[in-house]
Amino acid sequence: MTNFKKVKSKLFSKFLTKFEQSYGQAMKRHKEALFAPLDKLESLDWKLRNEGLIRVLEIGVRTGVCLASLGIPYCGENLKYYPRNSRVTLVDKNIYLQSYFEANPSRISHLKVERFMVSHGDDLRSVPSNSVDVVVATLVLCSAANVGAVLREIRRVLAPGGKYYFMEHVRERSPTSLRMVQLLLSASGLWPAVFDGCHLDRDAARSIERASFKELSYKYVSVEDSSVPLLNLMKSHLIGSATK
Questions:
Q1: So what's the pLDDT on residue 17?
Q2: Between vectors from CA 242 to CA 166 and to CA 125, what angle results, nearest 5°?
Q3: PANTHER family from the entry (predicted)?
Q4: How many CA atoms does the CB half-sphere of 182 hold within 13 Å?
Q5: Which residues does 155 contact at the CB level (< 8 Å), separation at least 6?
Q6: What pLDDT shows up at residue 72?
Q7: Per-residue pLDDT for 227 more than 80?
């Protein structure tokens, strides 16, 4: 590993640990509201429907890279909101995804994990079309190499009437000094280089609007935390759901 990569990994892991703690607290009520409808969804799969269960696929099982190999405990923070006994497929680009949960089984003990997939969100080719009731992706589009491809895959694997739940940080909508900083940090490549491909200047709403979902509902919220100054660079968030 080069010196730059070592510094990057150390910086990113330190930031991510603090970020996850603060972000989790700041977004708790928003996530509770976002995922509350899961308890009332009915599966397209008649077997699951008869049992009152649903099938969920989550892309990017943590907010960012799952650094289980570095001992960071914040992984799979959305899973606690899923209905008990949900059938889940967990997708993340990190090779330690499965080993993390094998070492921390209590984090998924209320769920039935059907599959762990080491993959990016734009490549779900092994997941059948129209097979998933819910896709969850939070803080995924900011670092996606091809946002359009990720959204096309989400729409493909969803069953008709299936739901895509999202929570993404986005660039400021008004031409403020913060928006200028976001544009500069992203365009320079500095922020993506340090924070695992994350971009501060993306407009997730426009991308999702173009993805041909049948229904779309979202809102903007602001998240700030003085204890994590870097979090304030990504304070505007898009939260909502889309229906296939």
A1: 58
A2: 75
A3: METHYLTRANSFERASE LIKE 7A, METHYLTRANSFERASE LIKE 7B
A4: 24
A5: 164, 211, 212, 213, 244
A6: 43
A7: no
d(CA 52, CA 135): 18
| Distance, CA of 66 to CA of 114 (rounded, Å) | 19
Three-state SS string over 77-118 comes to CCHHHCCCCCEEEEEECCCCHHHHHHHCHHHCCCCEEEEEEE
- Cβ contact 101:107 at 8 Å: yes
Nearest-angstrom CA–CA distance, 209 and 205: 6
The partner residues of 240 in beta bridges, in order of sequence, read 166, 218
Domains of the chain: 3-243 (3.40.50.150)
Which residue's structure tokens are 């998240």? 223
Residues counted in the chain:
244
User: What are the structure tokens assigned to 53, written together?
Assistant: 């269960």
Q: Where are the alpha helices (DSSP H) in the chain?
A: 3-35, 46-51, 97-103, 147-157, 177-187, 190-194, 204-209
CB 76 within 8 A of CB 107: yes
